[in-house]
Structure prediction request, 267 residues.
Amino acid sequence: MADQNTPAGEGALPKGLPALKAHVIANKVDVALWGIRILTVLCTIGYLLPIFNNPISAFYKALLANAATSALRLHQRIPPREIALSREFLARFLLEDSAHYLFYSLIFMNVVPNMLILTPIFLFALLHAASYSLTILDTLGQNSMWVARLLISLVEFQSRNILRAAALAEIVLFPLVVFMALFSYCGLMTPFVYYYFLTWRYTSRRNPYTRNTFRELRVAAERAAGSPSAPAPLARTLRSAVSLVCRMAPPGEHLHHRARTATATST
Prediction:
């Protein structure tokens, strides 16, 4: 955006379609990401409301669009010149959120369609597409499409809740995947692979929402189990479930939970 102190006609950036064309040429990858994310949103809606297309086809197209988005983001985060066949590169690769969701699409390419599977990628696509749509509208002109700007503002205002909902969907999906494997709706290896996806999301450096949601669920379960009104079988079930999940957590968190439990017991 041009400096507000720059006089008009002396380097001020134009608005409208010429400016949009220049922006697309200068930001090809970002614009491609924006378009693919919109496609992900449309395919998810097409799966929910199969009026003009096949819902099964829309489901897999949404997964493919998410895989394309993740691959492009990885291209931005890790330039080709930095790719190497080494343990260090693999560790760096698995730290990237885009790598997590590239694997996410691959995990569910051969499962029976389910809306919960599309929920995280739909929410991420909606949030990021809305954010970049504002950049597009600013390129066209500050007063362009005020209705669209209002809708984008609503999405951005709810960004924290959207990220929390995506994290909750990631977590709730795990028992569903186990159920699907038991009843042949997906491969028997799918729960094991998805477990590794969840551990990557839990240890994500850029997105703490999965980790925070796990902790909020644990606190809620422990509070419910400790309530005087909770039936004894339910309390035991909740405590067993919390203990199981904590044993499956990455090593550092498991040790933290054991220390917390020991402290609570001693007091």
Remarks:
- The chain has a mean pLDDT of 84.
- The chain has twelve helices and no strands.
- Residues 15 and 70 are 31 Å apart (CA to CA).
- Residues 115-140 form the longest helix (26 residues).
